[in-house]
Amino acid sequence: MQRPTYSTTKRAIWLNCFMAWAVIVLLAFGAVTGSDQAVAFANIALPSMVLLIGGTLGIHRHYGSKDFAASQERGEPEPPFHARDQPGAGP
């Protein structure tokens, strides 16, 4: 069976993590510059961003392998060739 690709999922996880880290860095920069609004917003946003990063990675790690395992249990037939075989190569 050919190994599945998770390019969309990986892209979404990287985008989520990047954006959450960007918010964290911006809040830290705002707090260093002395912005009271950034400090007040950080009370809510910082724990939310940390949970978003951890939750996204945790959910993907936990459930990402379960769909692959479920496809293995269905007993899908193997193709009569290997995906990486060269078309004109001998046996």
Major β-sheet annotation: none
Number of helical segments with 4 or more residues? 2
Bulk shape: elongated
Q: What would the average pLDDT be, to the nearest integer?
A: 78
Low-confidence stretches: none
Count of beta strands = 0
Structural summary, described in words:
By secondary structure, this protein is an all-alpha fold. It is built from two helices and no strands. Helix 1 packs antiparallel against helix 2 (36-73). The model has no long low-confidence stretch (mean pLDDT 78).
Compact overview of the structure:
By secondary structure, the chain is mainly α. It is built from two helices and no strands. The chain is elongated.
List the helices and strands and how they pair.
Elements: H1 7-32, H2 36-73
Helix pairs in contact: 1-2
Distinctive features:
mainly alpha; 0% strand; single chain; elongated; 91 residues
